[in-house]
Automatic annotation (TrEMBL):
One of its GO terms (molecular function) is aspartic-type endopeptidase activity. The active site is at D76, D279. This is Aspartic proteinase Asp1. Residues 58-406 form the Peptidase A1 domain. It comes from Oryza barthii. It comes from the Eukaryota. The keyword Hydrolase applies. The keyword Signal applies. Residues 1-25 form the signal peptide. InterPro entries: Aspartic_peptidase_A1, Aspartic_peptidase_AS, Nucellin, PEPTIDASE_A1, Peptidase_aspartic_dom_sf, TAXi_C, TAXi_N. Belongs to the peptidase A1 family. Pfam families: TAXi_C, TAXi_N.
Length: 451
């Protein structure tokens, strides 16, 4: 759901409206949630497609239905509900890559179902059914003003696991028949959204309930485009990653490593600790007004005379050099690293080098991919988006209540046969010597993943 610079698109406001049972009777009825018998807990790895610029999102192909049909889903750790644009019939749908999902009458989730109660109660604290036969209606709204209105359904998802088995669990997701997303005339890159938040309606939580995977999800987004997504913990480098305990947002159950202090070029910027959320559904990173302005002032004060500020409709703040830049590598020497120091984790630092906060546009300008979140209604929340998470494996471990990250070769998908498919490439982060933290192993790489 990511798009223009002003929209932290995947970050859901998570407003669910329990609609009256007025949805037309010709929309599908529902059958029970299927249970996967005899499934062994394992992991699954999926290739990712897309990029931060110019496409503005990363997405995955999922096989849904019987027989299975492919659908492209925007990978969104900032929301729980997975949904597809669907013909139920469709009131308002944008053009999508695949034929609209068409549910059958036995797929509708009734309002009295526990999954419907979890959806409504988890997001609004309210759940009421006027009739046992009432369907589970929803409306979810996102921070970019996009929305999906629909009904909860169940259908099978075909998943190939690391233990070589193929499972077809029946999972609940949204059948969205009235969308307000993007342009109705342009073909969307995706058919819907893959919600990977921590709520019980999340696909990840449902797979855990079925005993298929552990409640662990991670992604590795490549600056070259693509990457991979995984469910389960078979490829998690527990002993090498940087970890911080999950801290629940004061507003919603977003993935948060807690508050962080902000540094630029090894020095503190003198702003109060920032509440930080990780959100793969947001193309760019967003800081609230005070840290954003402090960072912009620091960057501008540190730039050489080789760069001049220029207008570029791609992003609000851009610079040009003596000749057009071809990639961030051409300009990164002009900028210093940003560092987030998380108070919840021991030595939990996240380095944000220039290539993780700059893009080079089609005009050859270098533009700042950290934006003012206060201008788009995020108040005091600070979102670490795709641009900052590129070339890092980011792990959301709901089993242990922690979030981890480590530099990794995201354009190399783990081997299908062994899962442990990386031969080399993991390195300790290259932190500057700041805030009393000396990274003595900054030059060490290792060749295998060990827990």
């Amino acid at each position: 759901m990511a798009a223009g610079w002003a929209r932290p698109a995947g970050f859901a406001l998570l407003v669910v409206v329990v609609l009256a049972a007025a949805a037309s009777a010709d929309r599908p009825a529902r059958g029970g949630l299927s249970v996967t018998a005899g499934a062994e807990e394992s992991s699954a790895v999926f290739p990712l497609y897309g990029d931060v610029y110019p496409h503005g999102l990363y997405y995955v192909a999922m096989s849904i239905g019987n027989p299975p049909r492919p659908y492209f889903l925007d990978v969104d750790t900032g929301s729980d509900l997975t949904w597809l644009q669907c013909d139920a019939p469709c009131v308002s749908c944008s053009k999508v890559p695949h034929p609209l999902y068409r549910p059958t009458k036995n797929k509708l989730v009734p309002c009295v179902d526990q999954m419907c109660a979890a959806l409504h109660c988890g997001l609004t604290g309210r759940h009421k059914c006027d009739s046992p036969k009432q369907q589970c209606d929803y409306e979810i709204k996102y921070a970019d003003q996009g929305s999906s209105l629909g009904v909860l359904v169940t259908d099978s998802f075909a998943l190939r696991l690391a233990n070589s088995s193929i499972v077809h669990p029946g999972l609940a997701f949204g059948c969205g028949y009235d969308q307000q997303v993007g342009s109705s005339t342009e073909v969307s890159a995706t058919d819907g959204v893959l919600g990977l938040g921590s709520g019980s309606v999340s696909l990840l939580s449902q797979l855990k309930q079925h005993g298929i995977t552990k409640n662990v999800v991670g992604h590795c987004l490549s600056t070259r485009g693509g990457g991979f997504l995984f469910f389960g913990d078979d490829i998690v480098p527990y002993s090498r990653a940087t970890w911080a305990p999950m801290a629940r947002s004061t507003s919603w159950n977003y993935y948060s490593p807690g508050s962080a202090n902000l540094y630029f070029g090894g020095r503190p910027l003198g702003v109060r600790p920032m509440e930080v959320v990780f959100d793969s559904g947001s193309s760019f990173t967003y800081f609230s007004a005070q840290p954003y302005q402090a960072l912009v002032d620091a960057i501008k004060g540190d730039l050489s005379k080789n760069l001049k500020e220029v207008p570029d409709h791609s992003l609000p703040l851009c610079w040009k050099g003596k000749k057009p830049f071809k990639s961030v590598l051409d300009v990164k020497k002009e900028f210093k690293s940003v560092v987030l120091s998380f108070s919840n984790g021991k030595k939990a630092l996240m380095e944000i080098p220039p290539e993780n906060y700059l893009i080079v546009t089609k005009y050859g300008n270098a533009c700042l991919g950290i934006l003012n979140g206060s201008e788009v209604g995020l108040k005091d929340l600070n979102i670490v988006g795709d641009i900052t998470m590129q070339d890092q494996m980011v792990i959301y471990d709901n089993e242990r209540g922690q979030i981890g990250w480590i530099r990794a070769p995201c354009d190399r998908i783990p081997n299908d046969n062994t899962i442990h498919g990386f031969e080399d490439g993991y390195c300790w982060p290259q932190f500057p010597n700041i805030i009393g933290y000396q990274n003595e192993q900054s030059a060490v790489c290792y060749s295998s993943i060990t827990k």
